[in-house]
Please model this.
Amino acid sequence: MFGMGARPLDEDPRPIKPATVRRVVRTFSPYKKKVAVVGLAIVITAGLGVVNPLLIIAVFDRALFGGLRVMQDLRNALYRHLQEMPLRFFTTTRTGEIQSRLANDVGGVQSVVTDTASTVLSNTVTIVSTIVTMVIISIPLTILSLLLLPLFLWLTVRVGKARRVVATSTQKTLADLTAITEETLSVSGMLLSKSFGRQSFEIGRYREENERLTGLQIRQTMIGRSFFALIGFFFSITPALVYLVAGWVNSNHVHPVILSGMLVGFTTLQSRLFFPIGSMLQVSTDVQSSFALFDRVFEYLDLKHDIVDAPDAEPLVDVRGSVELDHVRFRYEEPAADVVPISPEAVPTEQLREWTLDDVTLKIEPGQLAALVGPSGAGKTTITYLVPRLYDVQGGAVRIDDHDVRHVTLESLGEAIGVVTQETYLFHDTVRRNLLYGKPDATQEELEAAARAANIHGKISELPDGYDTVVGERGYKLSGGEKQRLAIARVILKDPSILILDEATSSLDTTSERLVQAALEPLMQGRTTIAIAHRLSTILQADVIFVIDRGRVVERGTHDELLTTSGLYARLYEQQFQDQVIEPDSSLR
Ligand code: ATP
Model:
């Protein structure tokens, strides 16, 4: 309601008269200097306000970009390092653990680096300018307000340590969770849990691990938050402290007297410090806990590569394809020093069998087909691992064309050898890309020729998108035999001089097996082949058969020669001849 003299709101206000303006200016004119100082202060404050956004721009455009680059380099370095790790590392480490270090640990470090860069840069200006102004107003009061800073710094270090411990456990649990996910949500893991009806068990296991992770994450956050709350508490009581001291100074007539305007200004500045200092301290605890993550990344980067190119390594060129194992001794793990027997008589025979391969000598001429035959666990696969130097021998030597494999470059060794194993690995990608892995620059004609030779072109043509059909995770959209034939086509494209073939034992039916067998024929033509043979046809075709038992070559020769010796080979042949397939049988040991 308007009073009697009130003017309705919608009425035009009276225009400002120039005379009024002049009069106002005149009124202020004696205080010109003071007005100018206030104006300048406003301009400076506004200017400082603009500095922060400008700094943030600088942070994002330069510092942050640089920070992110460092992380990108770290991730690349870690991946490269892992690529060059020996097979031994991967047989003893869970894939999920490896993935977690690459993704979660490097990612965690990255977010800390990003946050730190922006927080430090944007808060420094506010803190420095505020403290400088505080010092100008009153040095003793500034000292009083910042008296607690050393305590905060000490607390920061303590809190940082506590968070580092929790962060280590958090990252470990995160890796466990990643490993569970990776193992159970893969096609093979799913097949296993479904066929054993263990889904509720897996759900429970995941839930338990997830609960542990959440608990740790809450702890980590709580440690940070309670610290921040503590800082907040101290900051809220310092203005009271300042007022108290000022009151005491003024009432005791200590000079100089602290003016009330000065006090208000000072405490306002003090409160301006809370957030920037708080977040700086918070970030510094983050930085400290990120060391736990750095440790985990560095732990992998520090792992030694024991299978690397020798300084004098030469590329293997014009490979003829002779393969020789010369008195080879090998075991997967080095026994601990205290279990090495002092005298052979003093220990039971079982403990003496510490070599997986013991004094293995064999020679395969270029273009020959050599069959490795023997009971399960005899060491056949291990022999094939030593040729491409997936492991290094502990005694003797492996030679290709008379070159010790330890003195040729790993890259050229990889190019010279092709492997077809029972477990076919295909990428979740198109047929074409899976084939091109064998020869990246292959033409469509070459792809088709290889696929025809491997008896798989017909099947590929029937697929909805032909060569562009995605084969599914690890090729699960294809049958076992089809996958193997695709893998064979891939090796045909690669065209290696030496072929290592681990024949399937039982996964295929007769028709499928015949198709695979037919696909293998052209692959074996004209190259040295070492086959872990389970098919009689391969064994009969072999130029030489090596019978392996308990890590030793116990017999060697052709099928006919070996049959006449009535040894292990003859026994294996008799027992499995009816199936037409020689299958390993541990009962023969
Ligand atoms: P199969 O016919 O059953 O495949 P194989 O003759 O190929 O058997 P290998 O795989 O060479 O036998 O194994 C030889 C021995 O080495 C076995 O006793 C096996 O337990 C052991 N072994 C294989 N791989 C490893 C490994 N990564 N770490 C430790 N020991 C291993």
Notes: The domain at 31-153+225-301 is CATH 1.20.1560.10 (ABC transporter transmembrane region fold). The pocket of adenosine-5'-triphosphate is lined by residues 91, 332, 356, 374, 376-382, 584 (CB under 6 Å). The radius of gyration is 38 Å.
